[in-house]
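Slide 14.
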Amino acid sequence: MAATASRVRCLYAPSVKAASRSQFALPSCAYRAFATAASEPLGTDVNTRRQSTSFQDKINAGPSFSDFVGGSERKFTPEDALKLRTAIVGPKGKTKEIIRLPDWLKTPVPVGENFKKIKNDLRGLNLHTVCEEARCPNISDCWGGSDKSTATATIMLMGDTCTRGCRFCSVKTSKAPPPLDPHEPEHTAEALSRWGLGYVVLTSVDRDDLADGGAHHFAETIMKIKQKASSMLVEALTGDYAGDLQMVKTVAQSGLDVYAHNMETVEALTPQVRDRRAQFWQSLAVLDAAKKAKEGLITKTSIMLGLGETEEQLWDTLRELRKVDVDVVTFGQYMRPTKRHMKVEEYVTPAVFEMWRQRALDMGFLYCASGPLVRSSYKAGEAFIENVLQKRARKDQTTIAETQDEATEKFTV
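Slide 15: predicted structure.
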């Protein structure tokens, strides 16, 4: 019985220390020693608020819920919509002003069945894509495509580690990357034939540690793709092979449809933007050698805007590209991958991109994709199929018609 009484006392009676405190604080009837919901203590004001914090002050000073759901939506003028907005960030005493990402550079989260299928297959076959490694904002758009046959994937060959360190690129770098995977050409061809894509872009990291720069590995991959899917259009976005034009010729004659090599920027900015081993005139020589290596081969290059280039410098670059008969040029906004990379000097507006697109077409380029989110291989399948091939087909039809007319005239005479 004594044990029972002691247990009840332990569970329900306040301790001696608690009882002594209750003499100076609240009545003992308001005290509960076990974890149950208790009523409000006697003698306290229920409406008493906790001391406000700096976080609460910021919330209270901001927009209310009614601002989001009530009233009419504010309509921006074209000037307001393109105006860059700034924000103050950082702790007190170390604040700084930053430029917020413009609305025209924001993209949706990648989704879709094609996107999921391609990503799962890549992981299963241990393949890499520049879409992922370079953090491209258009990955969902390209991998999905307007339909299955025109979806575009950009496979990155020879691993995910580059021997060069360009100041705009987020791909990993190393002086001694892992050795090449001898099964990669076969795996790549198998994956692409399984996906049923209409167009594929093959690119690679620079491999200055290899005697041929990886050119034969590149060419073997293209040949195996054509063996498994002869109707698939293949674009090769290559490096400069340290100026070895014989390696350029090897890739150009491997069966591809488009040979691409990016100039990246204007001549004056090349030393600051690209790796010291990548030179402006060397890149022009690569495009020239590819064009001469195979008759009818489409050549293509890409230029980033927003690095501090001038209008006259862009004009000079386009003129040099036309001298080596480059067919396709693309313009896109440089976007800083991380804080360790070059800063963005300017966010170029869509109107300026459209202006350069028209200028390029007026200069004689077969096709020009130009826009803030355009990348070298952005929707390359749609661009190639809808523009370059169709233009060439029309040109061939015109030539045939003219030949027939000449033959008819001769026969009549």
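Speaker note: The chain is about 40% helix and 15% strand.
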